[in-house]
Q: What sequence folds into this?
């Protein structure tokens, strides 16, 4: 059953009353051949999904953009991780599909890993210092930089719901066109953001993340990075009928994967959690249609041996589903 | 009687006193040959108006841009509609003139329908999350994208009356030029918007929609998508003499079609209404000079069989007038 | 006596005390040969000033940009005027030098009048819906559009005194350069605007309009469209010595024509006034150095026969002076 | 002694205590050969400094940009001056080095003076109508316009200290590059501006003008137009040690000329003052290192004969030093 | 031990508890050969690091951008320093690796020092007059200017944490690309700035400067100029665990050098301090991994002889480590 079939299956629910409203079959992980991708995008995704990492159409990415987003503070718990060599070594030996760098790290650290560790060039970013009220992540690199560096994808943060959405759409539109021209896959970090979500269940609600998934699809993302929505119970502040939907872990993941449609979904790890929770997240994601995982702090905020150990466990889960 | 003749006919009223002020003959649907269109625009509109859909110079479009404008929430009442395959199948089997997609859906879902279902590429959009006070719909695609994808028209949302009108005019000016260069028809979603309308009868008033129709014409729209104005009684807050005009359903539709001049008019369906109301709207629109209809949620917010059923009824109305 | 000589004549006043301060001879209408225009601009103005309309170096333009600036509300008093055919017919049969259209009307209605009625393409505009506090008229077309459409001039609204003057200057600078490149005459609608004028006698004061005339000249207008200043008595709020200047009708017109220097002056009609006032305005303007008139609502807000009648009277005045 | 030597001479003061702090020798007027100018800039400045006007490496410019900056109000005291012919005749017969025009006047009035009166094209400006809080002078012409018109320099107003300084720097950067490309000298009107100066002695303080002089040099001005700083006594609001510096007329002029370094300095006349004060200003400027003078209203706000008379006296002073 | 090895060494601490959190070995000064630089950047840095100044892979730069950032006020304590000749002579005779100029000084003063004193062109700047709340340093020159002037690097001020960070990132992105194209090294003045730091220990805190160092690396700086962080005791307002880190002078310097990774670090001198403190700073910087020093006011705010004397002492320290 391919992505096309997955959500066109008949519904079982009866409309607007809570859980049934989302009553679609659990999505299956998409095959690259099911997607009508241009040859350049397909070739590059093939490297990430079949030639490196767990393979078989999956992705396991190691992101290291937190030095810009949060500062070196994130490395204090594991000082060696301050040096990007740490993450490169982890990516290589841990069998990741690729590593995510901003332009500075990509330019200064990739040389000896060129070809061995695929590069995803993150091309926009910001610090977390000034107010987030008009959140906007500005370009710090270009798709052309990614081409020059031999990257296999670019990463772009889209703040869905921010008052700056107009600038964001315009900036992304330009990126998308360049990516189209060069056959470069685009991975969208689709983050709900902005005060407007406060009265609607917050930025981690199913409503918010479900919307973000669809926006990424609509705007032309090839891959979308999502957080797992809150799923313990329905938040009553969410718009109807989300405020009555109590889908649980699997159901929530399944819901947003379906909303992302033919945009492949990666789930993020977020701040550091227990190993058990992390592996549960990995399994839940992969069992409910995700293409892969993009876990950062949960990997490199620990010594290399431990990091390699947990990476292997995650890879095993990915391969098993 | 062609569009040229329709509104140059002698008036019967005596000036500024209410209903008579709009006393023009009921407009007739324009013929493509009456419009002095460049050959490229004419060829593409011909496909939409004669080769696909109900034909005979009409248009019946299926819009599916709500995933961006409202989020996946709109699909919860009919979960299969989350998958754009649903709308594509409906467009193909329901005999629509074309389907309206944003770039992401157009790129990822049109392949197997290429040539079978004409594409209208919607090239700007926004989410409904942040404040609407400075409403502006930013470009998420280009006319060149539309050309590359073999689209037969582009869609553009213009927020008439928004404080951001200057940016909107500049953005549209660029789109219009590109469309001129490539012979691509431009369909303008002309939406009254902004606080300034509040004290003038609101954005659904005859005054507001009448103004929006004319703005679209003045700025160079080839086709304009309008809402049916409120028409039960004259809103006293509207500027004179609109506040005394009580034109009824047919008269209101006729009024705004006349104001759109040689810009062809499509009426939208808006949020879901009863079938009776929907068919009345279809008939009223077509009987009063509209070129066609662009009904979305009223079509795909129901199971496929029902959707095909109502589509056939609408097509029958279109063909009968 | 040419424009060069007109204002270099010796003054008769003695300085800063009121009326004498403006003591320059009544200006004479400029001859096209007195202006050092590039050949392209000269050729196009020649068509407007000698080959069409009243001729002999004059201009009588019919503007129809109110559908954008005010909405279709302006046509309710004379419904047939909603159709641009009305104005085109009036322009042709009434012997106008040209018609003023925005891009939409120019593209869709000029075809059968091409060559018969010269086109002035108005290339910026706005609606009157949102707040006017930062008044700015955004481009909705380009000089290149005007060239492509065979226009003989472009029109540009400059809001002199608006807080947005910096954007306006930059936008106009671009237009002026394009116009220079293509030999396209530029007619500037020079409108005083903005709160700052409130405490200085208002936007219709002699001070305000006199300033606007000079700004248009300084920025490179070939022709400037002005309102007739208030002239019944000096407004005491105006800056010195304007607050003491009581020049009367002829003197006020003469003053602003002199301030416009070698930018040819057209006077506008404004909202509808009595025929007597209109003809007085025409005569006053032409007797005091204006090159022509640009009367819109006063012409087409009446039935065709009446409109043609008054047009002939105006043309007669123009020809007689 | 050239400009290089002038300020590298040993200091005689002992540091931060008032007058001694500025203890540099009185600067000598720079020679064009001392400046390492590109050949194009040198050739054009040569025309202004040696071939026209008082010569011998000096400049006497006649500015006529007040029609834009203040409006025609400035001409009311001498109505013939409304016609740019007045200033052109004055520039030619009064032996000026050049005339300063905005693009409109340059395009429409220079033809018969081409080659006889060198042109300085002022390429940015504004009106004084709206609030000055974010003062920014927008481009109304380009360096390329100046080249096309055979100008020998461009003039640019830089508002040092305005909250809009970022836009100003970016705009000037573009101008400077164009000027470099075409070998066009750049004269910067360096005006302290903005509320921030209010608590620091004001925009006419030595502190403010001294800073403005240096900013012009740092950003790449070839010539800088300055006002003479207030110099009767030290303003206690100025930052230390300016608040203790009491340099007198000559010392203040000398100070800012030194701060301008290899940017040649012109002093402005400002609003009309007595002839005695004007000639004192001319002498003080020239004796303390200025390259020339740019007096406008003090020249053309009087009848032609008087204007020629005072121009001759100024020229004599310039030639004598 | 090269930069690669320096921070990948095993940690000795146990996590998030204060000083141990930063427990990395003291970094060693990087060798140019350890960095994977493009040949153009390497060639230019080689001139600065080996052919001029103290050599052996170090840099001693003389900055003279204060005339723009602070105004001529900084020169009042030593008036001859107002003339850039002073600094050029000091740079040449004091054995500096290069001098830092804005475009105006570079264009007008470098000629006779071309080839003798390497140029670092500072390409953005601002005055300190208007409010700093939205601090943004606008471009006043381009990388192409630097190439044309034979510069060996460009300097760029990045205000890390300013609410204008989005504009800053976009502007820097453009600079970085141009620098990449021309093989021009980029030195980033990484300054924490903005109100948001107030509640986090301020802009001189270890937290702030550590973050700034990493941001420069992430965005692609080749060299980063930093202030020495406050290091007498941990500021309790800093985010955890910075608020518990008490690393002392050497430890703080070491920390931020490590955070800068393969971006070479220069430490600034700041406002004038005692000679003893200055030499301590020099030694502390060089002993803890810095590549060099960029001391301005501490050098040229004294007579030439003294300046040369202290420069020699600094050079000796650099050479000794």
A:
């Amino acid at each position: 059953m391919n992505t096309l079939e997955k959500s066109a299956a008949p519904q079982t629910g009866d409309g607007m009353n809570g859980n049934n409203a989302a009553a679609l079959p659990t999505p299956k992980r998409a095959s690259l051949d099911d997607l009508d991708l241009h040859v350049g995008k397909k070739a590059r995704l093939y490297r990430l999904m079949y030639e490196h990492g767990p393979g078989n159409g999956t992705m396991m990415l190691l992101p290291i953009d937190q030095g810009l987003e949060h500062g070196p503070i994130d490395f204090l718990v594991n000082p060696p991780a301050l040096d990007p060599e740490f993450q490169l070594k982890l990516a290589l030996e841990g069998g990741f599909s690729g590593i995510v760098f901003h332009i500075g790290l990509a330019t200064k650290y990739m040389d000896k890993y060129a070809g061995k560790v695929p590069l995803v060039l993150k091309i926009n970013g910001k610090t977390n210092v000034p107010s987030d009220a008009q959140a906007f992540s500005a370009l710090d690199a270009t798709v052309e930089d990614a081409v020059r560096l031999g990257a296999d994808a670019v990463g772009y943060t889209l703040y869905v719901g921010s008052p700056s959405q107009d600038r964001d759409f315009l900036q992304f539109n330009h990126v998308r066109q360049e990516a189209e021209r060069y056959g470069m896959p685009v991975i969208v970090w689709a983050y709900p953001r902005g005060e407007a979500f406060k009265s609607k269940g917050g930025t981690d609600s199913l409503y918010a993340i479900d919307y973000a998934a669809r926006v990424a699809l609509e705007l032309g993302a090839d891959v979308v990075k999502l957080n797992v929505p809150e799923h313990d119970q329905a938040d009553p502040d969410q718009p109807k009928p989300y405020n009555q939907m109590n889908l649980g872990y699997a159901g929530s993941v399944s819901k947003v994967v379906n909303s992302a449609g033919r945009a492949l979904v990666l789930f993020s790890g977020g701040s550091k959690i227990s190993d058990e929770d992390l592996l549960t997240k990995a399994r839940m994601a992969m069992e409910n249609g995700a293409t892969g995982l993009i876990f950062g702090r949960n990997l490199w905020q620990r010594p290399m041996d431990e990091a390699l150990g947990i990476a292997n466990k995650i890879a095993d889960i990915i391969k098993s589903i």
Notes: Chain B touches chain A through 41 residues (CB under 8 Å). The two ends of chain B are 15 Å apart (CA to CA).
